[in-house]
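Translate structure to sequence.
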């Protein structure tokens, strides 16, 4: 954040320590990018080799932030939003404070520079994280019939999820895939004890068109035997392809795909601001130990956005 403040020309429109908004106060287009990354995986410091930038956050999403900074330094007209705390639970996001300030009032489109391989990714999936608990009764493992094994109950309760095929949902000619995964499991206290409790964390990526409440109800349908606790629930976002500014951007970037992930376009959509994902990052390398981004992508996205915004 200190580096962003140093590199931006002039004073920001808004700066609360976790988010900076800079640019032309009435510009119709917002460019947005987060500064935080996933934890390091022995991929610091970064390096440049063979036309590629390697290192933590290169694709997700320091590359997009670099493009934003260069556009701002060239004084290309837009409102630029740099923010922290995106690679964590939605409740920690500083964007609600930005929205509440009114500094983005009148915005007509948000371009979020998440990694998209320099093509357009429309909309995004919702992201529901939940914990499901199963309860039994402890007993000696030599006499398991005297108790109830919570791990066995968990295995039976999650069996329908293991057989569940991705659900394809088509919107505006784009196909999003709804998926549910068990991503963490725990239970048991000793080898000679039938466990009285077991739990699993579930991740539900739900398609645009399904509300947060509907997503939670659907997950409860899928795991009726367990005790479900929602940990966090981030909304989906529609494709917004009818937006005139999106249509103009598509003239410059004809390749279009559905965003098979969650991004902050959902937060803009909840505020009535249409959004699209367009960034230089390589999706195949996001969050990987060998994270990297082609330098050609940086130039391509910079030049396209400079043309679009002017």
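Result:
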């Amino acid at each position: 954040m200190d580096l962003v403040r140093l590199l931006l020309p002039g004073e920001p429109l808004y700066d609360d320590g976790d988010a900076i908004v800079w640019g032309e106060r009435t510009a119709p287009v917002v460019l947005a990018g987060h500064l935080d990354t996933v934890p390091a995986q022995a991929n610091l410091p970064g390096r440049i080799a063979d036309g590629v930038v390697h290192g933590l956050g290169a694709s997700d999403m320091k590359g997009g932030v670099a493009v934003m900074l260069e556009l701002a330094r060239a004084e290309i007209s837009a409102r630029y939003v740099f923010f922290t705390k995106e690679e964590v639970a939605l409740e920690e996001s500083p964007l609600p404070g930005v929205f509440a300030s009114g500094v983005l009032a009148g915005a007509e489109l948000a371009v979020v520079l998440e990694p998209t391989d320099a093509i357009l990714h429309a909309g995004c999936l919702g992201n529901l994280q939940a914990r499901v608990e199963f309860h039994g009764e402890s007993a000696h493992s030599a006499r398991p019939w005297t108790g109830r094994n919570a791990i066995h109950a968990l295995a039976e309760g999650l069996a329908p999820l293991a057989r569940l095929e991705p659900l394809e949902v088509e919107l505006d000619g784009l196909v999003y895939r709804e998926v549910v995964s068990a991503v963490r499991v725990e239970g048991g206290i000793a080898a000679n004890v039938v466990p009285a409790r077991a739990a699993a964390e579930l991740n539900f990526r739900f398609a645009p068109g399904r509300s947060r409440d509907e997503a939670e109800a659907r997950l409860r349908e899928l795991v009726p035997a367990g005790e479900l606790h929602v940990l966090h629930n981030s909304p989906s976002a529609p494709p917004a392809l009818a937006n005139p500014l999106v249509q103009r951007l598509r003239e410059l970037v004809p390749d279009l795909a559905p965003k098979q992930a969650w991004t902050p376009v959902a937060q803009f959509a909840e505020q009535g601001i249409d959004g699209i994902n367009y960034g230089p990052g390589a999706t195949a390398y996001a969050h990987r130990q060998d994270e990297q981004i082609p330098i050609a992508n940086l130039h391509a996205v910079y030049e396209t956005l400079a043309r679009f915004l002017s």
